[in-house]
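Write out the 3D structure for:
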Amino acid sequence: MEQYVIKPWATRDDSQPTPVDWDMQVPPEVDAIAELVMKEYEMSVKSKTLITSKPDKGGAIWRIETDKGPRSLKVLHRTPERSLFSVGLQEYVVKQGARVPALIPARDGKLFVEKGGKLWIVTDWITLAQATKVDLAGAQELCYGLGEFHRHSKGYVPPKGAKNSSRLYRWPNYYQKIAKKIGWMREMAKAYRETAASNSILSVVDKYERQAMDALERLKASAYPRMVQMGEPHWGVVHQDYGWSNGQNGPGGLWVIDLDGVAYDLPFRDLRKLITSTMDDMGVWDLTWMRGMIEAYHRANPLDRESFEVLLIDMALPNEFYKHLKEMFYDPVTFLNTEAEAILQRVLSTDQTKDQALAELAKDISQYQPGDYTQVVVPATPVPQSPASASDEAKWQLASPTPAAQVESKPAGVESQEQSKPVDVKPQEESKPVDVEPGKVIRLPEKERKSVRTAAPAKKPPVKEERPVEAARESGKREKEKLPEVVLFPNPGLPAAEATMPASKQRKRLKPRVATVKKAGVKPAKKKAASTSSAKTASRTGKKASAKLPAGKALKKTGKSNATTKTGTQLAKRSSSPQGTQHAAVKHPYKKAAAPSRKLTSNQAKKPRAAKAKKTGRTMR
């Protein structure tokens, strides 16, 4: 059983209806591991009931009846290193006084059990009830509880071995992605003109793309660059999936559950998601609800003037338009012919009140006090917690941490001692603070990008860009993996062979092959037609090309190889076809330099004249 690794056990196509028991089943291997995990705790289990599962991710929650009362057993679907980040946060906020289920230690003192390649946790079962959605009071309860959770998470530093998770420095990249994807929507609508929603999308896509670009420029000019320099522990973590299902009323107030996706970020990002999704559900941007939700959050976790400004900018971004219409990238024909038109009309109807509501809300900025962001910049990636004793260190130690997690848990700019070769991309590059002044362009590093060392820092020649339509069609597959930028020709003044290979190898590639003539009495092998470069060399030097040799003697090398190499290089350089240059210099390294390509250029001799020169031994002029 220890050999079994838990993975997603079922997937579902979005075009198909969800099965009735979709989230109410687990493989027998996972259920058997759950039995082993429960034996790691000081409790006697009477019964076990599956509450819900995530078949497409590999997670599940059980309610177990024990001699210590009802408890919850949960398998976290992320990697152990990533789950350790959230487990450490859960214990931290409980100690700070947050209403979050406390983790129960296992027999070995750890707050988790590692089995099946995943982390398992056990907590007391808390009886909860959803806050009401029908009035503002329920929304304010939800926002107040969210503010409490954010306040208690400030200062959190993950335990050693945890994979750091942060979105604090990625706001400009996210805004740029939204603008780019909305531009792809235009190309998709043009490519599928015959679909039902094509014309409707083309009529509004320019407006939403402009909104995204305007929001990006406002973010650059705001206090965001100075705010993120305060560091990740200063702001704490966000839930990332907060709503009426993960914030519920219980003993003493509102409880926050399902913390396995927490990450560092500006905390009011959770508040923005909650407000915009509520306005989308209501079908109107209600100023009373917006003010009430922000005020409730402000009472629990005070906002300053800069935070309120960035919150307004984040709400101005066309989040709902992008969220609902991005489905076209996965199945454009079906989506644009069936659901897109109705969804688009609902979004447009809701957004009719958005601009006016945000303009009125912006007048409240004077009610918030300015923040102080003049402190010295702290390290971007927090240093892992220093254990007070050896027992504390063993308390968080994973059974088999992966090398990737060990690297990512290091501070930014610190290389692993096990690395023997220099790397171009440093760990946690995404978490580096942005050292720019307001109003300047922010260029944050992307984790997926890798720098490529080139021979010369010359300008890159024009490269054929990817068609937006083709890129949009593949966006669903390429969302999580970005290709590095590769400089094909570091020096545009040279052909591909000279830019990428030493001169000695180039001459070796372009040097003609010479075969030994057979013994006397045997008909010598026929030579191939002389190359254009050899014909031109002979015409310039005045020497005639020899056609016959004495029997039994090998053909001696002459000093023409250098000239031939030079001439062949010139031909490759003058060739107007990139394919021809690559054919001569790269694809066939051991072939004669007879011709850079099959097509004859203007400076090459025709085949009949070259053949006649070989037979007569005379230079054809």
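The chain has 24 helices and ten strands.
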